[in-house]
Design brief:
The complex is a heterodimer of chains A (900) and B (114). Chain A is α+β, with helices and mostly antiparallel strands. Helix content of chain A is 53%, strand content 15%. Chain A is built from 29 helices and 22 strands. In chain A, the strands form three sheets. Chain A has a six-stranded mixed beta barrel. In chain A, strands 14-15-20-17-19-18 form a six-stranded mixed barrel. In chain A, a hairpin with a 2-residue loop joins strand 3 and strand 4. In chain A, helix 5 packs across helix 16. The longest helix of chain A has 38 residues, at 361-398. Chain A is globular. By secondary structure, chain B is an alpha+beta fold. Chain B is 59% helix and 16% strand. Chain B contains four helices and four strands, in the order βααβαββα. In chain B, strand 3 and strand 4 (76-82) form a beta hairpin. In chain B, helix 1 packs across helix 3 (49-60) and helix 1 crosses helix 4 (84-113). The longest helix of chain B has 30 residues, at 84-113. Chain B is globular, with a radius of gyration of 16 Å. The mean pLDDT of chain B is 80. Classes of the chains: A alpha+beta (900), B alpha+beta (114).
Amino acid sequence: MRSPRESRLRAFAAKVRGFLRGRRHDGEFDDEVQEHLQLLAEKFVAQGMPREEAAAAARRQFGNPTLLREEHGELQTFLSLEALWRDLRYGVRMLGKSPGFVAVAVMTLALGIGANTAVFSLIDALLLRSLDVPAPRELVRISFGPPGNAGPLSSPMFDRLRERQSAFTDLFAWKNSPMVLTENGVARPITGAYGTGSAFPTLKLKPRLGRLLTWQDDEPSGISNGIAAVISEAFWLEHFGGDPGVLGQPITVDGAAATVVGVMPRSFNGITVDYAPQVVLPFAFDIALHGKASCRFRADCTWFFGMARLRPGVSLEQAKANLATLGADVLKEALPADYQRIDYLRNGTLSLAPGRAGNSPLGEIYGRELWTLQALVGLLMVICCTNLASLQLSRTLNRQHELVVRTALGAGRLRLVRQLVVESAILSITGAALGVVLSQWMSALLVRYIEQSDFPVFLDLRPNVTIFAATIALATLTVILTGALPALGLTRFDTEEMLRSGTQRTVGHKRHSLASRVLPVQVALSLLLASIALLFAVSTGKLLRIEPGFRVKGITFFGVDFGQRPEKGEARLDLYRKMLEALREAPGVEAASVVGVRALGEGEIDESAAPVEGNGPENKHLFENVVGPDYFATAGTKVLAGREFSNLDRFGATPVCVLNQAAANFFFPQQSALGKHIRSTETKAKRAICEIVGVVTDVKYLSLRQPAPPTIYYPYEQLPDFSWAGFITRSQNTSAAVAAFKNALHRFAADTPLLPPITMQRQLEDSIGKERLMAVLSLFFGGLALLLTSIGLYGLESQRVTQRNAEIGLRMALGAQRGDMLWFILREAATVFAMGVPIGLALTFGASHFVGSLLYEVSPLDPRIHLGAVATLLLAGFLASYMPARRATKADPMVALRYE
Amino acid sequence: MDMKKSEVLQGTLDLMILKTLHALGPLHGFGIARRIEQVSRDVLQLNEGTVYTSLLRLQQQGWIAAEWGTSENNRKAKFYSITKRGQKQLEVEAENWERISDVIGRVLRLEAEE
């Protein structure tokens, strides 16, 4: 005898066959049924029945053909497309009936998925993605610096190491360097880079066109017949219209000529994540430009980024060991003679790190912040999911009656579950699609926060397919599980009993237990997010209120590079003077001066100095700045004693300088610094001794977070070789200053590229970009979490009130006071908070130590902030649950009772 | 209580169809329905559509085979016939059925005697 298992197997095999075949037998089956009906009708006619009645009778005797077809479909395959389509249509119709629910659910999903994808694609671009070169895992970064500091290499370090090492197939050095491209007499800034000849062979890159650079291109002897350059594909398309004839064409970069020999592949955007060079030149070009003064020959420039490719079979550890044995010898030969004097060189060592992802300065700056953000949006996703769960749950409970009716009409349990799953899928797919759109927008927003005003950020932000799929899968799973699981439970109900009672009151009290179990978690997470948001907001607020020591409003900086101008020495100073005069006379400009290092900008000059007279300590590392006459008045920095620089402080006059308060107090404590002298202890310093003519307030040059460095100011007119001082203006509006500067530049140095002007406001904002990013985004996410939790609570309370309508009516009819009833309803919300808040506080304290280091002068455990977060959460929660509660107690007891 | 027609017991329809095909040779669905109606003398209430579900089930088990042919009035029709495996299954099922009906009959009689 045949076993039941065998027969089940056969049925299954038939389903598989049917599934693979598709539904082409349907037509045949319909024919068969039609034929049967007709024969039956004919039989009835033959028995004497009128023709119209016969057809109806035949159908009666045959049964429901549609149901039969469905049954057949189910026997023949797993899930028919037709049934799916039907479920889909029905699902859309049902969802259309509760637009509020759909809107909230879809937005919740979209925000969760969008935020996660946006933050992660930034992390992916800045920190995770490999360079698009063959075998990127073999690449390593070679750095020099004191422990914990992975800085650039000097040329001799690179050359000595390259001669001696045995762990790598080759090494190369790379230096990103903004350049000036001159074309038909018009100069414009471009992104450029220098690479050693070994760079492209080591990266194993194939050219898009022509050839890439080789060692021959980088030999100083080989450059007599022109220097080779390669260009990026984007530059080639934009500049040469993708013309293959570009090979052999000359380009003028930084005032010197190079010949294009090839185009780099599109996938290669340099080795720095956010800097895509348009032109790459061999270091030989720098030698051609600067001769013996090029950093390529100097031991005191640590200036380029080192990379290498591991020999096949050599691990990173082995390479590290190899470097450890060589390092000391290499450094001994490579460091400048006076390295003992400089901390950085004295304590520096060579180190190796994985170089798969290249170099990411932005990633290093924002890494911690981005991962923190990712954690926050991850939590937000959890809240989104729990919210969806409780939303779905209450919706399903509210649909109980519909489900029961459908069961009574003959729908199977599986059928109902399938219906609910389909509805959930519609929701999640819509939400995910919207999430994709949102994530694009949010990524762009994030990049704008990260971008610095004077530095073009190139970021290749493509959504990471894996994480994207994972997020969507998570959301879909949540939706489906929460949509289908309750259905399974509900359909187990006694249909008849439910139908008879007619209302939803039979829903047991214990069956929204999932929602009430999920909500405390949501409350806890929201509290965590809210606390973190408040911490970041308070911290950023403090930073913004700091007295920086300079004016912010109306200040604009203009960088210039007169390095290519023919004027040198006194003529250069005269150029500055003429520019300055034109600026000061321009309408709308209140004041103007010259400045070397702008506050909170990237540059800094170090200087070591010692007092000539006075009792202070011997010498001190100083921050140096070079400024023009009336600089302090223009910048809004107060002169505390003495005077500021004037037009008379020129080359040839007595060398003068100005100290800030910190420096003055250091060198000349408890006495006036005016008239005293300072001697520079820098070996190569040309100005040995200067007279202090003024003391000014401290200015936060480096960052708002750090105290102002002791600073010394020199008048630029006493430094004729100083070629890169820029201009600073004070004006009512920025556009007046920009117009004035353009005019002046056009009049006196038309061929100098115009660099983008920078307002002090923007500079200040950039300098606390990280803090602002964290504050704005965490506030946004925290607010979102609060909102989602409130919606969840509102849903729970509404549902509870609907279910208890009769009970509430009865109690009120029996004389319960409104206040008592409110409490009766709010009790549940209170329980949720009583559980959620302590958990949330515990989580926050646990997390505080991770965010502590990102905060400025705010204790992560500050009770005021946490109290504030709890209060906000309680208020939101109270509002969310009070509304439905009030509605219930306002209801007429008689109406409520009548439903019984 | 009015004289309701008995519903066909689950699974018995399969047996009836197998036996019908065994006895009469290839038949189309309508023919099978007529034969069962005739044999049962209107005692059984049958949604004739369920015959087709049963036929499909039997086909999937490999007990019957289907073939397109032409009906008495020259129309295209699907003819079902019993397979070798189906005949074996019919023997087994028939024997089974008799055993069970025998047992049930005895039980019922027992009750009547008391």
